[in-house]
Specification:
The protein is an alpha/beta fold. It has ten helices and twelve strands. The strands form three sheets. It has an eight-stranded parallel β-sheet, sandwiched between helices.
Length: 369
């Protein structure tokens, strides 16, 4: 649509979360002369912000202030004792809150800003202030479970935005998570509920620790009332644009069409990109653009266009910015405005076939397609 625009929500307190440096996500080593930044650092979202502001989509974006979440809002999904533990741990100086997840004193305010800005973006869409919103936040959230820190995530930002929408009367919310890792926190928040459909596309990394017991298998389909409303699509290592687009078209689209959501949220990570140090996939700007187009098409068909994107992972500090720009090109329907500066990886359209077939087979018990 020629007149489509996106409201981008940002809060400066996201910069207070200082994860330091070392050997990737591990502490410094005396064997290494020059430590590198922890992968979840502020540079990655600063670059996304500058690319969106300076790039050709900039004229279609309206920048808005985010806000802090209240403790009561965090407790919509997180256990009170867990919320208090995160708060006190940060206020006492921080450290390693969970394996690979580092916090400092400023991380508490950053976490409040991240969750609150995601919720605020959803509120703006529901209030009619905008049709499409993007919350550019950190720390990310989709690994945070009701009482567990995991994978750089403190609170489940996208899930909290979905829950806020439910409490404002939205009967059916759909989350599409294309971060390269399984959205296990989001899954856990809604695993026994049918009012939030949770779909995750991810590489087949399985369970990686006691804080991440979920496997991301297509067999993890939900329990009780939630059976059939949790969809996992494991895409083989090296899956590129064609595989991700096929998964969106052959699994995500028919399930969304059957579910008929009233609001769509996108857990928008860029770590499936071909240059991400924390992923093993080969998605280029073209792939992200195509996924943005498909997601917006679904929102137009079922939600009067209403969609909220929430920033998740993405650790290639330069390339992630171009991938997010391409995603918003897809959402806006502009076609390619900013050429991909780095694309070169071959694209094997059959590489993701096994995962797509597995997800389709598992979900045919619950959905007709």
């Amino acid at each position: 649509m020629a007149d489509r625009s996106i409201d981008v929500f940002w809060h400066d307190d996201s910069m207070l979360h200082d994860t330091g440096s070392g050997v990737f996500e591990h502490p410094p080593s005396p064997l290494i002369e020059v430590s590198e930044l922890h992968p979840e650092n502020d540079v990655r979202i600063r670059n996304i912000r500058s690319c969106l502001q300076r790039g050709p989509v900039g004229e279609r974006l309206r920048w808005r202030d985010g806000r802090h979440a209240t403790v009561a809002e965090l407790e919509m999904l997180h256990e009170p004792g867990y919320v208090e533990h995160v708060k006190s741990f940060c206020e006492q100086g921080g450290g390693v809150l969970a394996w690979s997840t580092v916090v400092t004193t400023g991380s508490w305010k950053a976490a409040l800003a991240s969750a609150g800005t995601a919720i605020g973006a959803a509120e703006a869409v529901l209030d009619g202030d905008c049709v499409t919103a993007y919350a550019l936040v950190r720390p990310p959230g989709h690994h945070a479970q009701p009482a567990t820190t995991d994978g750089y995530c403190l609170f489940s930002n996208t899930a909290l935005a979905a829950e806020a929408a439910r409490r404002r009367g939205v009967e059916r919310v759909a989350i599409i998570d294309w971060d390269v890792h399984h959205g296990n926190g989001t899954q856990q928040c809604f695993y026994e509920r049918a009012d939030v459909l949770s779909i995750s596309l991810h590489m087949p990394h399985g369970s990686w620790s006691s804080s991440h017991p979920q496997t991301g298998s297509a067999l993890e389909a939900g329990l009780g009332d939630g059976e059939g409303y949790n969809v996992n699509i494991e895409l083989d290592y090296g899956s590129g644009d064609a595989a991700y687009v096929a998964a969106m078209e052959r699994v995500v689209t028919p399930i969304i069409d059957a579910y008929v959501p009233q609001l769509i949220l996108i857990a928008a990570g860029q770590d499936a990109s071909q240059f991400d140090p924390n992923g093993r996939q080969n998605v280029s700007c073209s792939g992200f653009r195509a996924m943005g187009e498909i997601a917006q098409r679904l929102a137009d068909r079922h939600c009067d266009g209403r969609m909220v994107l929430v920033q998740e992972g993405g650790y290639a500090r330069s390339y992630s910015a171009f991938c997010m720009h391409a995603t918003l090109e897809g959402v806006l329907g502009t076609g390619e405005l900013l050429p991909d500066p780095m694309a070169y990886m071959p694209d094997d359209e059959l590489r993701g076939e096994a995962g797509i077939a597995s997800a389709r087979g598992s979900m045919r018990r619950y959905w007709r397609f």
